[in-house]
């Protein structure tokens, strides 16, 4: 075999690309991963954004772990390669009236909720149990390869029968619950269960993270469930901070892939997927170098693969149209801060580490507050009072900054989604000021504690790491872009119109969050296809 010949080529060294490479190499394949940037990780990146203070490290884009199944962690021996996660603390919402709500999933949570509503405190266990029953159905579905609905091919019909058989035990009520969850807004769903605006605000957060949709938008109830059913190796529904930041997750995936024999090449931008008679035969790099392989896996946004790295004439016109219509709007802005002390909240005084400092610190006073932020952006202006999901991983992880300091990561929403087309620096800085002012209203030492800040908008996310539109999921998690429709009808099974070319980005089924499931499912599909080909040749 020549040095440029491989069994498989993976485009993109984000976590999905690295997971796919690790699984393929583990099975004995000769694999190379090609990354355009100088480092692996994509959104799973730990960086030093302030040249004058390199001792401060931030998780620039993604910032917490939750959705990666335990079996992927074990299969790839990620813990042996440095994967370590600190369980995250509770959701904490402080309010301008000087009160605060702590959502921790235990008896103390019910006491906190009871301050706002005794009825809601009594309802919470039933809500948790209901969500658990939904997770029992949805979690296995994430690990299913979507069937090609509408196809009359015997193999596709058999896959549909297998999927239906898996859910044979569901009764009418459970089917109804899941249908409502997939189609309802998180606002309407919470109205059915709770009465307190504060409690509803806390539970609405997971329904709008990373979406171009406010809590009143149909489908956001599913987004909430999607964020609730992962485990990251620390328990169902749990979230955690990787030691060393999110870049440590990518590094562990890279070390795993390399331990199985995969090659990982950075500064190796793919300019073209090479094909012959409708089949992938390799790739061409921007440098002019060509690599050969009968299997190519793309782990980058489908708009990059199908609209830039392939000629339109090589693909069915209806497929190209579907990819062009695939929506990747965002409006998210990441604000990373270095702090000289922890926030001293009026509602929970003290700047020494407390339980609330180790959790998700929300800027979300009510569902209406969140909805107004989205409506501002939809009307063409950055939110006047932005929503923010803030975390301080350094309460647990002491590797990210000097002793006595902290890193705070603010995942905020929204600016107009058109901000992905231009930098809008002045407007982003003013927007970030408003986010900081929002926290300072709740913790008056906040603004004065900031020693460094970084503001990352949708334009930066698209230009730096290929997140089209700045969308962290590589495509919106809307009802019309899920399961057998993700990213296009007939091609949700990780295959593409080009034989031998597969897709494993977050734009495929189960994508959204740092989970590795698209890569895991994609490799299963490749192995299934290879078995069929071997059987066919023997026959």
Written description of the protein model:
The chain folds into two domains: 8-44 and 70-84 and 243-326 and 478-538, FAD/NAD(P)-binding domain (3-Layer(bba) Sandwich), CATH 3.50.50.60; 89-238 and 328-465. It is α/β, with parallel strands linked by helices. It contains 17 helices and 19 strands. It is 37% helix and 16% strand. The chain has a seven-stranded mixed sheet with strand order 7-6-15-16-17-14-18, with helices on both faces.
Give the helix/strand layout.
Elements: E1 8-11, H1 15-26, E2 31-34, E3 46-47, E4 58-59, H2 70-75, E5 85-87, E6 91-94, E7 100-103, H3 107-114, H4 118-142, H5 154-166, H6 172-183, H7 186-193, H8 197-208, H9 220-228, E8 240-242, H10 246-259, E9 263-265, E10 270-276, E11 279-285, E12 290-292, E13 295-298, H11 302-307, H12 317-325, E14 332-339, E15 360-363, H13 367-378, E16 387-391, E17 406-413, H14 425-442, H15 446-449, E18 450-456, H16 458-465, E19 501-503, H17 517-538
Parallel strand pairs: 1-2, 1-13, 2-9, 6-15, 13-19
Antiparallel strand pairs: 3-4, 5-8, 6-7, 10-11, 11-12, 14-17, 14-18, 15-16, 16-17
């Amino acid at each position: 075999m020549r040095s440029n010949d491989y069994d498989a080529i993976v485009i993109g060294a984000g976590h999905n690309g690295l997971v796919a490479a690790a699984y393929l190499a583990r099975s004995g394949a000769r694999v190379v991963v090609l990354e355009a940037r100088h480092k692996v990780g994509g959104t799973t990146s730990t960086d030093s954004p302030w040249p004058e203070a390199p001792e401060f490290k931030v998780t620039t884009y993604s910032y917490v772990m939750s959705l990666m199944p335990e079996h992927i962690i074990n299969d790839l021996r990620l813990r042996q390669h440095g994967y370590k996660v600190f369980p995250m603390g509770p959701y904490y919402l402080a309010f301008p009236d000087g009160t605060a709500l702590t959502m921790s999933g235990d008896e103390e949570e019910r006491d906190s909720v009871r301050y706002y509503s005794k009825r809601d405190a009594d309802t919470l266990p039933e809500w948790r149990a209901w969500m658990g029953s939904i997770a029992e159905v949805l979690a296995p579905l994430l690990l299913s390869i979507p069937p090609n609905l509408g196809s009359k091919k015997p193999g596709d019909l058999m896959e549909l029968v297998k999927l239906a058989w898996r859910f044979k035990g569901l009764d009418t009520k459970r089917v109804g619950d899941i249908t409502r969850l997939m189609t309802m807004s998180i606002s309407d769903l919470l109205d059915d269960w709770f009465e307190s605006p504060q409690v509803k605000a806390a539970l609405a957060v997971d329904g709008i993270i990373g979406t171009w949709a406010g809590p009143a938008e149909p489908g956001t109830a599913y987004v909430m469930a999607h964020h609730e059913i992962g485990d990251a190796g620390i328990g169902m529904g749990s979230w955690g901070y990787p030691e060393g930041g999110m870049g440590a997750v990518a590094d562990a995936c890279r070390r795993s892939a390399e331990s199985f024999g995969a090659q990982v090449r950075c500064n190796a931008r793919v300019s073209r997927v090479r094909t012959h008679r409708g089949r992938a035969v390799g790739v061409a790099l921007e440098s002019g170098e060509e690599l050969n392989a009968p299997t190519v896996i793309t782990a980058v946004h489908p708009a990059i693969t199908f609209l830039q790295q392939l000629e339109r004439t090589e693909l069915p016109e209806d497929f190209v149209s579907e990819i062009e219509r695939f929506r990747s709007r965002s409006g998210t802005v990441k604000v990373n801060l270095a702090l000289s002390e922890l926030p001293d909240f009026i509602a929970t005084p003290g700047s020494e580490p407390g339980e609330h400092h180790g959790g998700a610190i929300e800027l979300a006073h009510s569902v209406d507050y969140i909805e107004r932020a989205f409506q501002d952006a939809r009307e063409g202006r950055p939110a006047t009072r932005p929503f923010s999901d803030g975390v301080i991983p350094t309460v647990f992880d002491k590797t990210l900054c000097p002793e006595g300091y902290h890193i705070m990561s603010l995942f905020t929403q929204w600016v107009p989604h058109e901000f992905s087309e231009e930098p809008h620096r002045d407007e982003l800085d003013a927007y970030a000021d408003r986010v900081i002012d929002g926290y300072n209203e709740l913790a008056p030492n906040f603004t004065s504690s900031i020693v460094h800040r970084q503001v990352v908008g949708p334009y930066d996310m698209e230009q730096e790491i290929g997140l089209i539109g700045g969308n962290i999921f590589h495509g919106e998690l809307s009802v019309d872009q899920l399961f057998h429709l993700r990213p296009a009808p007939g091609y949700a099974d990780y295959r593409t119109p080009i034989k031998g070319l597969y897709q494993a980005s977050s734009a495929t089924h189960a994508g959204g969050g740092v989970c590795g499931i698209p890569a895991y499912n994609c490799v299963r599909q490749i192995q299934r296809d290879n078995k069929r080909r071997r059987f066919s040749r023997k026959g």
